[in-house]
Amino acid sequence: MSTWVLLAEMVSTATLGVVGLCCCRAADDMGGSQPEDWAARRAAMVAQLRAYRIQDEAVLAAMQQIARHRFIPESFRHRADPYGDHPCPIGFGQTISQPFIVAYMTERMHVQPGEQVLEIGTGSGYQAAVLAALGARVYSVEIVPELAAHAREALDAEGYASVQVRVGNGYQGWEARAPFDVIIVTCAPEQIPDALVAQLREGGRMIVPVGEQFQRLVILRKRAGDLEQEQDLMVRFVPMVHGRGKDADDGTP
Ligand code: SAH
Q1: Strands of 97-199, DSSP E
Q2: Which structural domain range is residue 192 located in?
């Protein structure tokens, strides 16, 4: 594995604290990018993903096509390069995952057109858009109502109105829409939630970062009633919370 891929693994974090800000360039330093630069910036992002050994052409094409910057709330857009290989803040103490980790998790799930996919942690809506661009029927659960509302607007504006977003606690999954072919969890539980395993279709697969401060991606496959588990990359995601505390961050930049 090359140094770059190792580096990418080390910065596979959906939290801002450790890596985010030190890697982010302020928009003011970007030479006043014009909207027509976005496609070129996405092409550079995709070239970097190829260098990190992302090979699924459908995933790369989706990420070339989707306007990632539009999923970052406007008041946060100036804070970081939306196409840089790092997480970016989206408010409420949350981040949009770095492009590498979005591409990697999606690629590992081999999402096929028409498959029923559950995402836990809608955040900005970007990962949901990538899944929808692959032709999946996407259901996404977000615990912070304001983030769910922003994601809804961005998904509608960018042509992904088919994605269904629900405000709720991801520990319960989305029973009414189960079973799912694929479940992608983009926040970190300490243990794999039972309800999510129960809502996975026979033959289905799930990817979930498990652990506390640092986590390991776990890939599960349900086969003949058994659950196969593969331990994968070390990552750092925001925690999968059990409820919204009274002191929840109000999202002010
Ligand atoms: N997939 C997102 C990034 C996720 S950041 C994107 O593409 O932008 C993690 C998200 O998980 C945050 O928005 C956070 O509010 C949400 N989250 C944390 N705990 C949760 C829970 N129990 N249920 C649902 N969402 C949760």
Answers
A1: 116-120, 137-142, 164-167, 180-185
A2: 2-237
